TrEMBL record:
Residues 35-269 form the AB hydrolase-1 domain. This is Alpha/beta fold hydrolase. The keyword Hydrolase applies. SUPFAM superfamilies: alpha/beta-Hydrolases. The keyword Hydrolase applies. Keywords: Hydrolase. It comes from Actinomadura parmotrematis. One of its GO terms (molecular function) is hydrolase activity. It holds the Pfam family Abhydrolase_1. InterPro entries: AB_hydrolase_1, AB_hydrolase_fold, AB_hydrolase_sf.
Length: 286
């Protein structure tokens, strides 16, 4: 199965949007007048993380926007550390550029961290919130070092096996969920000169002092008023189930769903469960 066959039959387009002066890659799908759903990937990731989700959501009538976040993928890479308010500023600029006043946000890992921050700061822009293995509530030195080391190794050494290992780290069953096409896409991104030059800015949240001032603390999570769905894999290598439960308990009225046989990409690894769950949630939140 390739990314192209996943998208066969879907009215989908790749485009580049000027988001506050940052050229931003986006894949857009679904009816132009449908309720907007914006998909946000994780650290060192790219919009292909949602290729198994766009067809179902577009077919249900949603206008889907999967973007490469600030400093990631083929989006522009201004030379400054990417702390959470910078990502939020870029996301808001993308919404403005796309003519979106209020969006359903779906954030995986770092994407969930950014989406939750926007929801806590500017609730009028967030129709609903999905936090998929979301980061940002803890500062675990071992996990931070694993992310920093594995990413730098894959970026700074032109060995595709290191990129493959970085992707395998995310999945509970990499033989099932990491295609060679996905490895090749990420390897090409990782070895673009602008990505290599920028990797330190991208990894700044793995520095303890920087991370501490960007954490999603309980008082911030308590300010989220949007309907919120927390999704977590029971085999998530970057956070155990109690982390998900604490997030759920801190966000008023939120819903928690735990997936078996699932690591850090629940929307991808268990798309057959996630897609109907998401569509049910979006319908109730609309």
């Amino acid at each position: 199965m390739t990314i192209w066959t996943e998208l066969t039959g879907v009215d989908v387009a790749q485009t580049f949007v000027d988001a506050g002066g940052v050229t931003t890659r986006a894949v857009q799908a679904g009816p132009a007048d449908g309720p907007p759903v914006v998909f946000l990937h994780g650290t060192s990731g790219h919009l292909e993380a949602f290729v198994r989700n766009l067809p179902a959501h577009a077919a249900a009538g949603y206008r889907c926007h999967a973007i490469d976040m600030l400093g990631h993928g083929y989006t522009g890479k201004p030379d400054h550390p990417y702390e959470i308010p910078r990502y939020v500023e870029h996301l808001a600029a993308y919404l403005d550029a796309a003519g979106i006043g209020r969006a359903h946000l779906v954030g995986e890992s770092l994407g969930g961290w950014v989406a939750a921050w926007l929801a806590s700061e500017d609730p009028g822009r967030v129709a609903s919130l999905q936090l998929l293995a979301a980061g940002g509530t803890k500062a675990d030195p071992k996990i931070m070092e694993r992310i920093r080391t594995s990413t730098r190794r894959a970026v700074e050494t032109d060995d595709i096996d290191l990129t493959r290992a970085r992707l395998h780290l995310l999945m509970h069953d990499p033989e099932r969920d990491v295609s060679e096409e996905l490895v090749e896409i990420r390897h090409r991104i990782y070895h673009r000169p602008d990505f290599v030059a920028n990797v330190g800015n991208l990894l700044c949240l793995q520095d303890m002092e920087t991370r501490q001032r960007n954490l999603l603390r309980p008082d911030r999570l308590a300010r989220i008023t949007a309907p919120t769905l927390v999704v977590w894999g029971r085999n998530n290598p970057f956070g155990e189930v109690p982390e998900a439960r604490a997030m759920h308990e801190a966000i008023p009225g939120s819903r928690l769903e735990l997936f078996d046989d699932c690591g850090h990409w629940p929307q991808h690894e268990r798309h057959e469960i996630y897609n109907p769950l998401s569509l049910e949630f979006l319908k109730a939140a609309s």
